[in-house]
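Structure in, sequence out. Go:
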């Protein structure tokens, strides 16, 4: 699962920049005041989508850092560094492996008893912000598709 990070990080960056360029370019051709509602909604959806992709990519960078820490061997590497949660050292001592979940985005520590818990490597705002921005972009796009231009 972790090798997908190599694909998702550049894809997130490219999609974020592409949507940003589309959103600003569409408004820039006609101007904000001259643009009709449909064009403004499509541009807004693109800008919201660009922001959602940027926030998700930011979370992917945090997960990639946690993977790099987990793969780094040497002195002090057991238990895995990302799985060390302050105040819960007993739980960290039972960690045997890790996985990466992409929806919701998180670094998951697997324990010897078959359980798992999410490490605190991804900031708390990443998943709700990415979801909210994606839903807002979808609403803008839906309204733009159903709304008739004057």
């Amino acid at each position: 699962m972790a090798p997908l990070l190599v694909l998702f990080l550049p894809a997130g960056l490219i999609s974020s920049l592409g949507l940003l360029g589309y959103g600003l370019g569409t408004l820039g051709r006609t101007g904000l005041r001259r643009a009709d509602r449909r064009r403004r909604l499509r541009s807004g959806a693109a800008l919201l989508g660009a922001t959602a992709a940027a926030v998700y990519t930011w979370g992917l960078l945090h997960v990639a850092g946690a993977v790099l820490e987990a793969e780094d061997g040497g002195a002090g590497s057991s238990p895995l560094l990302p799985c060390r949660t302050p105040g819960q050292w007993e739980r960290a001592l039972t960690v045997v492996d890790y996985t990466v979940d992409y929806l919701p985005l998180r670094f998951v520590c697997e324990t010897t008893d078959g359980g798992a818990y999410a490490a605190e490597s991804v900031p708390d705002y990443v998943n709700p912000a990415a979801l909210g921005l994606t839903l807002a972009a979808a609403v803008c796009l839906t309204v733009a598709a159903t709304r008739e231009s004057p």
